[in-house]
C-alpha cells in the first residue's frame, strides 16, 4: 500500500529518476539530456536542502514513487538559490553560454542566471510558497497527487504560510487539469510564458469538506 512520509536522503536516487521521467512538460526528458542530474539539481534537490520539512514522498514497497517538494518563502529560497546553491551545484556542469540551444544548455543557463528573476515575480506576494510535484507515470490518476498536495498544504498551514503558487508548462494539459482540480486559480504575473502561474490558499476546506448539493433543505 502506498504511504506518504517525509523525504529521506536515501530516496535521492529514486526521486531524481522520477524528476527526469516527468520533466518535459510532464513527459519523459531522458532522451533529451546527457546530464541526468541537471534538472533535478534545479527543481528537486535544492528544496530537500533548504526546506526538508516541506518535502514528502509517496512510498510503495520500500521505494519512493512520487514526491512533492517546495519552500515556505520563495524570496528567501530564491536568494539562497542564487547566492549559495547555484554557485556550488554549477561546478558540476559546463560554463553557461549566452545563447543556449540544447535542453542541457538551456538548463545550465537557468541554473546560473535565470532562477531568481523567474522565481520572484510581481504578483506572487499573497502566495509566498511554491512547489514541484511529480509521480512516476505508472502511479498517475490514483489519487496520490491529491494526497501529496493535502499533506503539503497542511504542513504549510501549520507553519503559518497563507498561500502557495506553482508554475506549469502551458504544454502540460494533464498538469494544468490537476492544479485546477486541486483548487488553484491563475495568478496575474507579467510575461508569464512559457508557463502558467497558479495559486491557492493553504486553507484546504474546499478540498476536504463534503459539498452540499444546491437546493437541499433539512
Ligand atoms: C500532475 C500529477 C502530479 C497529478 O497527480 P495524480 O496522482 O495523477 O492526480 P490525482 O489522481 O490525485 O488527481 C487529483 C485531481 O486532479 C485532477 N486531475 C489530475 N490529473 C488529471 C488529468 N490528467 N486530467 C483531468 N484531471 C486531472 C482531477 O480533478 C483529480 O480529481 P479526480 O480524480 O477526483 O477527478 C501527476 O499526474 C504527475 O506527476 N504528472 C507528471 C508530472 C507533472 O505534470 N507534474 C505537475 C506539473 S509541474
Automatic annotation (TrEMBL):
Residues 2-203 form the N-acetyltransferase domain. PROSITE patterns: GNAT (PS51186). One of its GO terms (molecular function) is beta-N-acetylglucosaminidase activity. It holds the Pfam family Acetyltransf_1. Gene3D superfamilies: 3.40.630.30. GO terms for biological process: glycoprotein metabolic process. InterPro entries: Acyl_CoA_acyltransferase (IPR016181), Glycosyl_Hydrolase_84 (IPR051822), GNAT_dom (IPR000182). Keywords: Transferase. PANTHER family: O-GLCNACASE, PROTEIN O-GLCNACASE. This is Acetyltransferase. It comes from Phytohabitans houttuyneae. The lineage of its organism: Bacteria, Bacillati, Actinomycetota, Actinomycetes, Micromonosporales.
Amino acid at each position: 500500500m502506498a504511504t506518504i512520509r517525509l523525504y529521506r536522503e536515501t530516496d535521492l536516487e529514486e526521486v531524481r529518476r522520477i524528476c527526469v521521467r516527468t520533466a518535459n512538460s510532464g513527459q519523459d526528458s531522458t532522451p533529451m539530456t546527457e546530464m541526468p542530474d541537471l534538472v533535478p539539481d534545479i527543481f528537486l534537490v535544492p528544496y530537500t536542502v533548504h526546506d526538508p520539512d516541506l518535502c514528502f514522498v509517496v512510498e510503495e514497497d520500500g521505494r519512493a514513487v512520487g514526491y512533492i517538494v517546495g519552500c515556505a518563502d520563495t524570496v528567501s529560497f530564491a536568494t539562497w538559490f542564487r547566492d549559495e546553491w547555484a554557485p556550488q551545484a554549477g561546478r558540476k556542469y559546463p560554463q553557461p553560454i549566452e545563447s543556449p540551444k540544447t535542453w542541457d544548455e538551456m538548463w545550465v543557463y537557468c541554473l546560473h542566471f535565470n532562477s531568481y528573476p523567474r522565481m520572484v515575480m510581481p504578483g506572487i506576494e499573497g502566495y509566498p510558497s511554491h512547489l514541484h510535484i511529480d509521480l512516476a507515470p505508472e502511479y498517475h490518476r490514483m489519487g496520490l497527487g491529491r494526497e501529496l498536495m493535502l499533506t503539503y498544504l497542511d504542513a504549510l498551514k501549520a507553519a503559518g504560510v497563507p498561500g502557495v503558487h506553482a508554475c506549469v508548462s502551458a504544454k502540460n494539459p494533464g498538469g494544468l487539469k490537476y492544479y485546477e482540480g486541486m483548487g488553484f486559480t491563475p495568478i496575474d504575473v507579467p510575461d508569464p510564458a512559457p508557463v502558467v502561474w497558479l495559486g491557492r490558499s493553504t486553507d484546504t476546506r474546499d478540498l476536504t469538506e463534503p459539498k452540499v448539493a444546491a437546493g437541499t433543505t433539512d
